[in-house]
Every structure is written in C-alpha cells, then in structure tokens.
Design goal:
Layout lengths: L2 H6 L4 H44 L5 E7 L2 E8 L8 E3 L4
Antiparallel strand pairs: 1-2, 2-3
Length: about 90
C-alpha cells in the first residue's frame, strides 16, 4: 500500500484534520487576544491624549483628577507658567 492509498483510507487524513482543527482554534484565540490588547492600548493612548489636552486647557494652571470606579486613576497638572508642559500621570493619582 502506498502513502497515497493510506491517506485516502483515513489512516493519516483523520489525524491531520483534527490537528488542523485544533491549530485553527488556537490561532483564533491568539488573534482575539492580540486584538483585545491592541484595542485596549489604543483606547488608553486616546484617553491620555484627551487628558493632556484637558490639562493644557486649564486657564491658570492647576491640577485635576479623573476617577475610575470610585478611585482616583489619573492626575493632570499644568504649571501656571506658559512654557511648562501639562503632566499626566496614572501612578500619581
């Protein structure tokens, strides 16, 4: 019996189909995980950019905090002098 006949008889093709099925399932879960992390990082970058713009818009300088789930999560600070940049930190909150 040649290897082509053996594959046609299901001796190799059935295990290969199971292998392909589980490989596709694993690939799908990896892609979903990477996509979730990418979207979360992108959302956090957009939030940070918004917070920097908010801190920069404070007219006289000062500080403001953003709360998430009842806990301070972000702190914005703008120095009263115009040449200083707005500072945003997550740890300082």
């Amino acid at each position: 019996m040649t290897w082509l006949e053996w594959m046609g008889a299901g001796g190799i093709s059935l295990p290969l189909m199971f292998l392909a099925y589980y490989a596709l399932r694993r690939s799908k879960s990896v892609v979903e995980m990477c996509l979730k992390e990418y979207l979360q990082a992108r959302m956090e970058r957009e939030q940070r950019a918004t917070m920097i713009a908010m801190a920069a818009a404070l007219p006289e300088g000062g500080a403001a905090a953003r709360f998430e789930e009842g806990q301070p999560a972000w702190l914005f600070y703008k120095h009263s002098q115009q040449d200083h940049l707005a500072i945003v930190t997550r740890e300082a909150a």
